[in-house]
Amino acid sequence: MPIARFLPILTWGKTYTRATLANDLIAAVIVTIMLIPQSLAYALLAGLPPEAGLYASIAPIMLYAVFGTSRMLAVGPVAVVSLMTAAALSNIVEQGTMGYAVAALSLAALSGAMLLAMGIFRMGFIANFLSHPVISGFITASGIIIAASQIKHILGIDAHGHNLLDLGLSLFEHLPETNGTTALIGITATAFLFWVRKGLRPALQKLGLGAGLTGIAVKTGPVVVVIATTVAVWLFGLDARGVKIVGDVPQSLPPLTMPSFSPTLLGQLLLPAFLISIIGFVESISVAQTLAAKKRQRIDPDQELIGLGAANIGAAFTGGFPVTGGFSRSVVNFDAGAETPAAGAFTAIGLAIAALALTPLIFFLPKATLAATIIVAVLSLVDFSILKRAWHYSFADFAAVLATIILTLGLGVEIGVSAGVGLSILLHLYKSSRPHIAEVGLIAGTQHFRNIKRHQVQTDPRVVTLRVDESLYFANARFLEDCVQNRVASDKALRHVILQCSAVNDIDFSALESLETINTRLDEMGVKLHLSEVKGPVMDRLRDQHFLKSLTGNIYLSQFDALNCIK
Amino acid sequence: MPIARFLPILTWGKTYTRATLANDLIAAVIVTIMLIPQSLAYALLAGLPPEAGLYASIAPIMLYAVFGTSRMLAVGPVAVVSLMTAAALSNIVEQGTMGYAVAALSLAALSGAMLLAMGIFRMGFIANFLSHPVISGFITASGIIIAASQIKHILGIDAHGHNLLDLGLSLFEHLPETNGTTALIGITATAFLFWVRKGLRPALQKLGLGAGLTGIAVKTGPVVVVIATTVAVWLFGLDARGVKIVGDVPQSLPPLTMPSFSPTLLGQLLLPAFLISIIGFVESISVAQTLAAKKRQRIDPDQELIGLGAANIGAAFTGGFPVTGGFSRSVVNFDAGAETPAAGAFTAIGLAIAALALTPLIFFLPKATLAATIIVAVLSLVDFSILKRAWHYSFADFAAVLATIILTLGLGVEIGVSAGVGLSILLHLYKSSRPHIAEVGLIAGTQHFRNIKRHQVQTDPRVVTLRVDESLYFANARFLEDCVQNRVASDKALRHVILQCSAVNDIDFSALESLETINTRLDEMGVKLHLSEVKGPVMDRLRDQHFLKSLTGNIYLSQFDALNCIK
């Protein structure tokens, strides 16, 4: 099915029934209502006008419905990607200018093209280099930065910065300018939303409401706050007292827009676009897989890349900004009973109606309210327990997550996540450059060989068997040379060295040369080198090489055979 | 022996006899004569006045004799490091200025400090990330660039560039300005030196000379050419016909000099100094280990770093430039019968006498002659057979060496070697991100399990055993999830999955979370997950984790036990 591979819609479209349609429609109505305040808020976070948030939810959802493989994923603006968008663009153009909005389109186009390319060339594995602890640390730190960046709206002051330090200093400097009325609205809204999450949920559950319905009820919190504060500003004319409001929003379907393809701009956006693509993909795929596992459905990572790529290119040409599959909106979709991507398409239609007809209703919506919804949403992302769990498991994982958190908070999202990935790779290489090499002996009465330091085993003074617990490659080839040399130099009785290769999954060219060196050096000392339990693929590689011809000893299928033959 | 660890001189100094002294003195005389033209030539290559080459051979040799562990290594200017020095400095200051010589001192000081620090903190393993094929490719490409850079001296023209492309274009542009007399001297000298290498050696060996003596005779070639061409220029006044000569060289012991420690300069030199340190260390340690193996002596890599660090710092304060242990000079030392580092100290005294008394003799030495000695020396480094051998072994190794050669030739030494290292690491990570996972079965009548695709084995339809041939870490954790999911989803009869972990040398935090995910998903499908042959260190790590408590199956010491218990 070459076409069905790129168009999953052909698979689920064939079995679409009236019952499915009903479920999808109900889910779409619920999700549309939830998405309106969320979309406006994330546009604000990305530094864009509010309508961009609506536009970014319409075409992308439709395109994902055609190309994506998850049946429940809801694509649109999400918190972390919006923060990364703001961080990337603020370095290049001034916020609030026309150039800023165009650069956002370019960022979405570039990121979409990268995702598409990774999908077509099946390079989704790149995302695997983001380790779990690095992602957790990054999301936690981003949540804190996002919350801090919204405090200015809550207090009605000015503040800038894309890391915690700059933000904190700037907030402190402008603190005396706090607008009392804005702060009252902002703090009340935040407190109410926290209560909805922490107090309302248990209360409803005590009343016997199901988890799904409770989840939906809780998620209407932002809608209630938006309506209440908008009405309050309108009734009491609070905008005249300095409360900043959303104001005029054009009544329009998503416009056709053209990203800038200036080479200078694209060059500057290259790294941010790559990071946004990877982070967005990882966030989206984990949500998709979690939801799919609940219904025994399969997700194809490469096809997901194509779906997200199409969604971002859609955003770029319809006045949006970078999007991805969001956790909270997808869960709402799932809880509301969506069955196919058609639910997403219906949601898009709902949002299009909102963009066309309902924008005058949000004229008086205070920005502080949007900030409150963001703060409450992102604080649920903050989870420092990853530090404790990683510490308990291994120092390397702990170091990677700690560095990611500190660098993201201190120096911003791009440096933070890059450093986290770099550090995990370095630590992994460091570990494999000093592999565990165990001297093993036979467990009496069995054919098993175990570490002489951990088990009661039989050994022979003329024979030493070293089990190398790592693939042999350039970073540890010389370490093995030293190890064998040290073991043999101190023991004059030795006549045979057996390298047990049961854990050697690969031997690269550098390691092959090191094995030749070891063979030559042992030969000069009158010691023979043998190999045992070499794996099939490794043996295939060695077969035609000079090393096998010059090897002084033999190669044995099992370590037990090796010991019997040598005796 | 805490002091003897840092001062190997205390070890060999204790057993120094009169016979050893005689051998060392003879070796020193021979090496001194060889080193004079070589030192002058490499100073020229580095873009420095000729005396810098002599100075760079005196203090460094002495300091290495005190701190180094190799008994035969000769430290001083070498071709590749001199090329890297010229490439690094030309980007920063203009060649021929006072600032250039001072920057060379700073480069040596910085590189020395880095080597010392790596030695003290036992970080020599960093050099292991330079794989054999990358080094071979880099040395080959550097040899070609060096040879090309000397053509201008052979022809008596001007040309610039630090990669093959720039050099070639520049040479072509200036070709019409060729000085006939210079070209005659240069080409004759080159041809003679090639004949000495290719023609004289077999002739002498046919006459029954030993390999050592032949080697020494061949290496006097440059001395002969230097004397002959100097006399020719002096006799016939060829300098008046445009032959460029060495000219006035101060008669002096190495001067005390002070490197610049300007932060801007040091910042610019940071990366080049690091690359020079690593390349110099790798070159030096392989020479040292090759020679030590011939006499069953041990080399301590960390102490070698300290020895080379001290040598470079010595060069920085005595008018030199970056140095390392050279292959050709060390082999001369070895062939001439040097027994201890004292031979090196005596060579240093010989060179000091030369710097003090003999420099007027080289006034008429043509630069074309020095260029000829460089060309012939470095072309022996060029060896494209590495490409063929790597191709024959594995595509990844071939790709790394090809990229290193092409990028070094096309973009220069710094980019070339960095790209080679980066690419080897990426290819290694890519390979380990898609590990070999074999489904295994029991070989009848044994306790051995082998790949069902390669061997005739017994299997049970209710049980599948997957042997994972790689450590589990972030880059392949998700791959394992997909693999297990795909195998189980298509086989309704399955009740047990056993992961045979005999080749799993490490499980990091990301992989632990993936194992938990696999366990949960299998549980939902009514399939139990078991582990077998988990290694000691891995088991230690898992012991206290939540994963073991939630595991639906068991952990077995051997795969054979696992199958018996499950049946």
Task: Write down how many β-strands of chain A occur, each being a DSSP E stretch of 2 or more residues.
Answer: 8
Helix content of chain A: 55-70%
Mean pLDDT of chain A: 87
Question: Whole-number radius of gyration of chain A?
Answer: 30 Å
Membrane topology (chains A, B): Multi-pass membrane protein
Keywords (chains A, B): Membrane, Transmembrane, Transmembrane helix
Domain STAS (chains A, B): 453-566
Pfam family, one (chains A, B): Sulfate_transp
Can you tell me about this structure?
Chains A, B: It is found in: Membrane. Chains A, B: InterPro entries: SLC26A/SulP_dom, SLC26A/SulP_fam, STAS_dom, STAS_dom_sf. Chains A, B: Residues 453-566 form the STAS domain. 2 copies of one chain form a homodimer. Chain A is mainly α and 567 residues long. Chain A folds into 2 domains: 18-169 and 178-410, no CATH class; 437-566, 2-Layer Sandwich (Transcription Regulator spoIIAA), CATH 3.30.750. The first copy, chain A, is built from 24 helices and 8 strands. At the A-B interface, helix 7, helix 17, helix 19, helix 20 and helix 21 of A face helix 7, helix 17, helix 19, helix 20 and helix 21 of B.
